[in-house]
Write the C-alpha cells for this entry.
Amino acid sequence: MTTVAFLSGDRVTLRPIEEDDLEFLQEWINDPRIWRAIGRQTPVNRAQEREFFEEVVCGDETIDFLIDVDGTRVGIVGFNSIVWPARRAEIGYWLAPDHHGQGYGTEAAELVVEYGFDQLGFHRIEARVFEFNEPSRRLLESIGFSKEGIHRDARFADGEYQDTYWYGLLEDEWRTGDP
C-alpha cells in the first residue's frame, strides 16, 4: 500500500486511515495494553471495527490519522469531541506496544496539535488520561499540556475505580511555550 502523507514530521507520517488498516486497528484495539489505556472494556470484532471505520473515521465528527513510520503502521492520533463554535477538541491517540518509548507518539501528537491550532483554528485542545497511564501523562506535559483537574473514581478498571486526569492546552500557550 502506498502511504499518502497528510502531515509529515522528522520520523512519523500522519495519513488518513484506510480500509486496509482495519486488521491492524482491530488487532491492537483488543490488546489489553491498548484497550485499558483508552477506556474500552469490551472486545471489538471485525464487524464492529468496520462499523467504527464507516461511521466514525469516515464521518464528519472526528479527525483521525494513522501514524506511519517508514511504511509501518504504529498507531493512531486525532481529534474527537470537536465543538466547532467554541473552537475546541479532544486529542486521542494510541500506539502499538512494540513502538512505545521511541518518541513516535510525542511527534505524532505535536504534529496533530500544530495542525489543530494552525489549520483548524482551534483555541483549546483537551485530553483525558487515566491515573495509571503515566507515559501518556508525561507525553502531554512534554508538549505543553497542563493538568487542569481530576474526575475522581470516574472509571472502573481491574476491579477498582480509577481517577481520570484532564489536561488542556490553549493556542496562545502553545505558541509562546508558556502554559
